[in-house]
Amino acid sequence: MPGFASYDAVLDALTVAGKGEDYYFNKAAITTVATTFWSLWTAAGQPGVGTFGGTPLAARVVNSSTTGALGFTNPVGPDTKHVLAFNAASSVAAGTLLLVDHLLDYPGISATSTSLQTMDNTATLSRYTTGAGVQMFAEVTTALGATPQTCTVIYVDQGGAAGTTSFSPVVSSAVPRIPQVGFFIPLAAGDTGVRSITSVQFGGSMAAGVLNFTLCRPFVDLPIQVAAIAVERNLILHTPRVTQIVDNAALMFLLNAATTSSGNIVGSLRAAAR
Questions:
Q1: Could you write out the three-class secondary structure of the chain?
Q2: pLDDT tens readout for residues 228-237
Q3: Alpha-carbon distance 269 to 87, whole Å?
Q4: How far is CA 66 from CA 50, 70, 228, 242, 251, in A?
Q5: Average pLDDT for residues 267-271, to the nearest whole number?
Q6: Which tens digit of pLDDT belongs to each residue from 174-186?
Q7: Is there a contact between 38 and 177 (Cβ–Cβ < 8 Å)?
């Protein structure tokens, strides 16, 4: 188990050493569409309503102090902190909740412009700096129009090379939908991560809409398939991983919705340092 030599070491961290910590969340229900994907970054509750960068097309570094991030605290060096368990419940059969580290965002991308929208990458990744394992998704911040178009994204991959991909945002997508099939925009063949987004261009106007693009590092998913019953992903006993949460992580949630409402989602994340 990365970070711990044995299960006894985990118990010692939680009890004797006092290095365990629980992070609680309570996100208000959002209106969804069944079998679609959504961001809970701007949903009300705890943590609070998330914000995006203020300058359109400019990358912004997101960390644990950014409004919208779960209140993660860094361990005292040289310790590292690791996820032990992730649990949640919802008033409905919500779907699958995905925990990610929100790294960079690019706000104000117009779905009505056909011009090349070039990103300002003065700000760069402060965590997972090689881009390995980093994924990207779009989030609707102003509802999209009903005209279908293709969006082409040029990015820098985990090796520093240029990559190109494209997707077709789902028409009439509402805030805060992830308007593609799947949590993340598929990368070009052979690519395993993203360092930055270079540009975005629509093949035509969607008639309305604005997007925010986010770079994130996925951690763990949690199916919530039965209403009002808590479920847990134990990362020691169920799926031994004990993934490290790097310092200053901006933890947030994505949802693959199973119904027309997310319900009120409550739960906690248990972590320990070693």
A1: CCCCCCHHHHHHHHCCCCCEEEEEEEECCCECCCCEEEECCCCCEECCCCCCCCCCCECEECCCCCCCCECCCCCCCCCCEEEEEEEEEECCCCEEEEEEEEEEEEEEEECCCCCCEECECCCCCCCCCCCECCEEEEEEEECCCCCCCCEEEEEEECCCCEEEEEECCCCCCCCCEECCCCCCCCCCCCCCEEEEEEEEEECCCCCCCEEEEEEEEEEEEEEECCCCCCEEEECCCCCCCCCEECCCCCEEEEEEECCCECCCEEEEEEEEEC
A2: 999 999 988 7
A3: 7
A4: 8, 9, 30, 25, 10
A5: 95
A6: 999 999 999 999 9
A7: yes
The mean pLDDT of 147-158, rounded to a whole number, is 98
Contacts of 184 (CB under 8 A, 6+ apart): 135, 136, 137, 218
Q: Where are the domains of the chain?
A: 7-273
* CA dist., res. 105 & res. 125, Å (int): 10
CA dihedral 96, 97, 98, 99 (to 10 degrees): -160
pLDDT digits over 103-133, tens only?
999 999 999 999 999 999 999 999 999 999 9
d(CA 227, CA 258): 11
Short-list 264, 274, 251, CA closest to 81:
274
CA-CA-CA-CA dihedral for 233, 234, 239, 241, to nearest 10: 110
Query: Would the pTM of this model clear 0.90, i.e. be above it?
Result: yes
**Phi, psi for 89 (deg, rounded to 5):** -145, 155
What type of residue sits at position 29? A
Q: How confident is the model at residue 213 (pLDDT cuts 50, 70, 90)?
A: very high
